[in-house]
Predict the structure.
Amino acid sequence: GKTHKDAASVRSDYPIPPLTGIYYFEVKILSKGRDG
């Protein structure tokens, strides 16, 4: 996206445990994409 208002999403191979209240994870950006 071009501004801070653009949406994003992440897909993971590891599901969030159902009873977890807060879940933290880190991602590594592999490509900024066309509009990065």
Notes: The mean pLDDT is 80. Residues 9 and 27 are 11 Å apart (CA to CA).
